[in-house]
Amino acid sequence: MSQRIQQRREAGNLPRLIAVEGPIGVGKTTLTRRLADTFGFDTLLEQAEANPFLSRFYQDPARYALQTELFFLFQRAEQLRNLHQQELFSGPWVADFLVDKTRLFAEVTLSDEEFPLYDNVYKHMLIDAPTPDLVIYLQAPTATLRQRVLKRGTDFEQRMDPGYLERLNDAYTRFFHFYDGAPLLIVNTADIDLVEGERDYQQLVAELLDIRSGRHYFNPRPLGNL
Predict the structure, then answer these.
(1) Is 96 considered catalytic here?
(2) N or C: at which end does the chain have fewer Cβ atoms within 10 angstroms?
(3) Is 181 assigned a ligand-binding role in the annotation?
(4) Is 150 marked as a binding-site residue?
(5) What is the DSSP letter of 96?
């Protein structure tokens, strides 16, 4: 696989920006880091732990939703501004978020009174986000996401309302049902291991190397077909 990647690199055929997306607990940050290591790319990470309102949001969503979402919006804008200044805007890198996702979360968390305010700020931010060469959407049933969230043991996430996780998962499904902003690879992670499973991961890398346009679904091949 490394030889094939090198050939694509020499031919200038590697994606310059890969965005990995999916709901909480699906494994997007871990996959982002693994892809960056495989391709020798930099990473652009969400840095949710930097949001001072996030732990309070999980304790009292109605009270802290607006502060939480506005912080994430300003954080995205600052990250992209820094990329411009550092002349890294063209990549190559792997990100564990799409800027569009910021608005998706806001639609789930904010009240009918708060969302128009947020949306007005969003529209006036004029975030100059690059278009990914490839988006990888990781999906899993809500019960699987819940198990993974509990397993990783992040303190404030243990208080997450299961209903919130389900609404968020549904919002991601709707969003990517209509998404056509970039080539898209949809990966159901329920029965595969992209964290430690070498075979599943190598098949995923082989799949994404062939994607140039359109919508695709990742289905690992049986051992006999490798």
Answers:
(1) yes
(2) C
(3) no
(4) yes
(5) S
The two tokens of residue 172 are 């991601």
Tell me what percent of the residues of the chain surpass a pLDDT of 70.
Answer: 92
Residues 37, 42, 60, 96: which is the catalytic one? 96
- 23: annotated binding-site residue? yes
Quick count: other Cβ atoms within 10 Å of Cβ 203?
20
For residue 150, the domain's CATH number is 3.40.50.300
* 141 lies in some domain: yes
- Give me the domain span that covers residue 201: 17-218
Going by pLDDT thresholds of 50, 70 and 90, the confidence category of residue 29 is very high
Structurally, how many domains does the chain consist of? 1
- Tell me the average pLDDT across 198-212: 91
Average per-residue pLDDT for the chain:
88
Q: Are strands 42-44 and 184-188 parallel, antiparallel or unpaired?
A: unpaired
Q: How far is the C-alpha of 226 from the C-alpha of 224, rounded, in Å? A: 6
